[in-house]
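Appendix B, Record 12. Input sequence as logged:
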Amino acid sequence: MTIAQQGAPRRRPGRGPLDPNPVAYIFYPLLILAVLGPLSWALFGGFKNANELFTYPPTIWPRSPTLQNFFDLFQRLGFGNYIWNTVIVSFFTVLFTLFFGGLAAYALSRWDFRYKNVLLVALLGLQLIPSTVNIVPYYMIMNQLGLLNTHAALVIIYTATHIPITVWVLKGFFDTVPRSLDEAAAIDGCSKWRTYWSIIMPLSLPGLSVAGFLIFVSAWSEFLVPLVIASNKDVAVASVGLFTFFGPDSSMSYPALLAATLVTVIPVVIGYFFAQRYIVSGLTAFAEK
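Logged structural output:
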């Protein structure tokens, strides 16, 4: 070691741009309290009676837990019908969107043609149009087709609105699958459909899980479209059912409302846990790109 090197002052290792700031840890408990406090009060409120729900100071955990709110929700208020309608609409929306969107994404991934990029940008631009702009056209079209207050109307609208983002998500995953697999399958005598169904689809399960979960959450939580297109009680979905708690003719019951909110959230959480492994790997694949 030279004399110049011995006399040179040592630099203290600085904090990189991606290193966590220790000061930020002070605000994490406050942020957790601000988010989880009201949320916990709302979720556990479904297990409280009306008197305990509005006691001061408020309690998070119910002192005398009760399931009567849930019994009233399904027996007296018939909320189970709203949940069943939402399950039907969400299931067929995910099924049809992945089917048609997957075929379109596979075609855009494997074949090059004129204005291909223009078509992709146009599909992406369709996602920028807010759903409120299309409410009147939706209503007029479904009225002409005689599909108002039907599950089919919601499935058609949801499928059409979710295909663009599905094409973008699945195309990105199909692009990662080598085209040599398509060529090998063709040599073995597989048709295009057999290649897509038996080879490409199994290899793209992370992408299908990500797209399917995004479609499911969007279809499950949509409110404005079903309120206008299918507001009849026999076909109304859960979001419209929650809205009925605030109607002028309804007897407002906050414990029942919180119980209905908890029942509405549970299927989304269950769906995430079932597809968690594929969703995480799919999002990680996106990050690596």
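The chain has 15 helices and no strands.
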